[in-house]
TrEMBL record:
GO terms for molecular function: transmembrane signaling receptor activity. The chain crosses the membrane at residues 12-34, 198-216. One of its GO terms (cellular component) is plasma membrane. Belongs to the methyl-accepting chemotaxis (MCP) protein family. Residues 275-504 form the Methyl-accepting transducer domain. It is a multi-pass membrane protein. This is Cache sensor-containing methyl-accepting chemotaxis sensory transducer. Residues 280-300 are annotated as: Disordered. InterPro entries: MCP_chemotaxis, MCPsignal_dom, sCache_2. It is found in: Cell membrane. Gene3D superfamilies: Methyl-accepting chemotaxis protein, PAS domain.
Length: 531
């Protein structure tokens, strides 16, 4: 379009011209509307005045119709009343009455026209037959009323000026009541209003022009040049050319800001390119690491499953050990009870052996007494034998008896010695047995204490086995949970790997997008992300 070829200044000037034409058109329309309104006002004033005179005639006609007045008297009264009637600002405007054929009925200024047919006899300033025009206007009018434009000079002047006539027909009397008003003053008022509007419009135009020129200069300073330059730069940037050359512009202007934007955008695109390359490389490394982590996580999950199975077996073994420890505790408790009873029996045996030892010592004493008796008997037998020998033949039998007694005493002494030896040996053995029994009692006490300690240890082992069973159960539960978490981690790692691959693709697309921009005059672009 032709407007596209105009510069910004030309467009602003065109807008100012359009404003001037618009204001001129507004002034003309205002003047025209004012002229119409003033004309309508004058016409309304004329119509209102004539309607008042017509109402006077109609009133008297109604009286004649009603028989209050004769028709001639009513007509005379009506003519007189209308002749005396005046209106207007200075009260000089009058009414006239003509018949519908042009015969004069009443004219306050020209009474001599009464009764005369004035058609063709009254000319206005332009030679128009005024009465004929009134007659023809009434005939061509509607509803018994009509406007007729004439030209008459004002009183004291010879220059004809427009004068508007308005007539109304009085039904039944064949009358036309009318009046006329000059309208040349309307043109003067319109001209004054036109000049006033033109002055206001010119002032407005001057203000608009000054504002437009100031606005143009301000906008040009703010833009820094023609907007077409800014449009060309922005289009180049939109096309991806960030190496576009900008003209020397005013600092702080739009073009300067565009230049700063282009520089910042150039730097941003460069950083985005480097960042997209880094993201692509990092995402590739992340994807590789996620793949390795996924493999290791799956291996860990498999190991955890095996560990869980082993923990299940260990739990079963520990439970069996706990059961065996409880049985061993029961057996140890039984052995402790038996050892305690054995200790009591040994103590009883020790006491019995002490009593036997004491009895053996008493027997030894008795045997000593018997040995003494045998020794005394042997002495007595020896004495008896000596006495028998002294007695001779009389004491021979007594000597034999004494010899036998001596033999018995010797045999008793020998038997007592043997018994004493046997009793001594028994005492020695009983003493050894007592010592052994005492040692056995001490050993049994030690066995009872050891069995008690073993019982306590086995009880502790049983409690520890129970706690180990519970702990291993908790460990087994934790291992199962860890297995589930590891499997979930494996799934998350796979999702992370997929996300890293997606990030890599997005970084590649981002690199391809920013490659559209040319950031140096040679058109160099940074390499894209390897696919």
């Amino acid at each position: 379009m032709m407007l596209d070829s105009l510069s910004f200044r030309g467009k602003i000037a065109l807008q100012i011209l359009a404003a001037v034409m618009g204001i001129a058109l507004i002034v003309l329309l205002s003047v025209y509307q004012l002229r119409q309104q003033m004309g309508e006002g004058r016409r309304d004033q004329l119509v209102a005045a004539v309607e008042s005179a017509h109402a006077i005639a109609q009133g008297f006609r109604a009286q004649a119709t009603a028989g209050q007045l004769s028709e001639a008297a009513a007509q005379e009264a009506a003519k007189e009343a209308i002749r005396l009637a005046r209106y207007g600002q200075d009260g000089k405007e009058y009414f006239y009455i003509w018949s519908t054929e042009g015969v004069g009925v009443m004219h306050p200024i020209k009474p001599e026209w009464a009764g005369q047919n004035m058609v063709g006899k009254v000319k206005d300033g332009e030679g128009t037959d005024v009465i004929g025009a009134l007659v023809n206007g009434m005939k061509g009018g509607s509803h018994g009323r009509a406007f007729v434009q004439t030209n008459f000079p004002r009183p004291g002047s010879t220059v004809p000026v427009p004068k508007l006539q308005f007539i109304m027909q009085v039904d039944g009397w064949n009358w036309m009541v009318g009046s006329g008003l000059y309208t040349d003053d309307l043109d003067a008022q319109v001209m004054a209003a036109t000049l006033s509007h033109l002055a206001v419009g010119l002032a407005v135009l001057l203000v608009i022009g000054a504002i437009g020129w100031a606005t143009l200069r301000s906008v040009m300073r703010q833009i820094g040049g023609e907007p077409a330059q800014a449009v060309a730069v922005v289009r180049s940037v939109a096309a991806g050319d960030l190496a576009v050359e900008l003209p020397k512009v005013v600092p702080g202007s739009l073009l300067a800001a565009v230049g700063e934007m282009v520089a910042a955008l150039r730097q941003t695109v460069t950083q985005v390119r480097h960042a997209s390359d880094s993201i692509g490389t990092a995402s590739q490394e992340i994807a590789s690491g996620n793949q390795d982590l996924s493999t290791r996580t799956e291996q860990t999950a498999s190991n955890l499953q095996q560990t869980a199975a082993s923990m299940e077996e260990l739990t079963s073994t520990v439970r069996q050990s706990a059961d065996a420890a409880r049985q061993a505790n029961q057996l140890a408790s039984s052995a402790a009870e038996i050892a305690a009873r054995g200790g009591q029996v040994v103590n009883q045996v020790v006491a019995t052996m002490d009593e036997i030892n004491h009895s053996s010592k008493k027997i030894n004493d008795i045997i000593g007494v018997i040995d003494g008796i045998a020794f005394q008997t042997n002495i007595l037998a020896l004495n008896a034998a000596v006495e028998a020998a002294r007695a001779g033949e009389q004491g021979r039998g007594f000597a034999v008896v004494a010899g036998e007694v001596r033999n018995l005493a010797q045999r008793s002494a020998e038997a007592a010695k043997e018994i004493k030896g046997l009793i001594g040996a028994s005492v020695d053995r009983v003493d050894a047995g007592s010592r052994l029994v005492a040692d056995a009692g001490q050993t049994m006490s030690e066995i009872v204490a050891s069995v008690q300690r073993v019982t306590d240890i086995i009880g502790e082992i049983t409690a520890a086995s129970g706690e180990q069973s519970e702990g291993i159960g908790q460990v087994n539960t934790a291992v199962n949970q860890l297995d589930q978490m590891t499997q979930q981690n494996a799934a998350l790692v796979e999702q992370s790997a997929a996300a890293a691959e997606s990030l890599k693709d997005q970084a590649s697309r981002l690199s391809q997008v920013v490659q559209v921009f040319r950031i140096d005059a040679a058109g160099h672009t940074s390499p894209g992300i390897p696919r």
